[in-house]
Design a protein that fits this description.
single chain, 83 residues, alpha+beta, two-stranded parallel sheet, 46% helix, Polymerase_NTP_transf_dom, DNA polymerase, beta domain protein region, NT_sf
Amino acid sequence: MFGSRARGTHQADSDADLAVVLDGDHAERSRISGEMAEVAFDILRETGLTVQAVPLWESEWRHPERFPNPILIASIRRDGVRL
């Protein structure tokens, strides 16, 4: 978890930002992102909490320059809480 909830600065209506580190083929990013969005929607429906899930592959975590947004990985490393 990262962002305001990890830092303890969230409001009641703040979303929950989750980075999910994965193994496997990067070509699956679209499919996995879609599946994560479906789960996030179910959580929203059941709890009212908005979840923003970001799929990351281990190679991107180890080498942020390979991720489309390396600044996001820096933020996750700085503020993140492992769940």
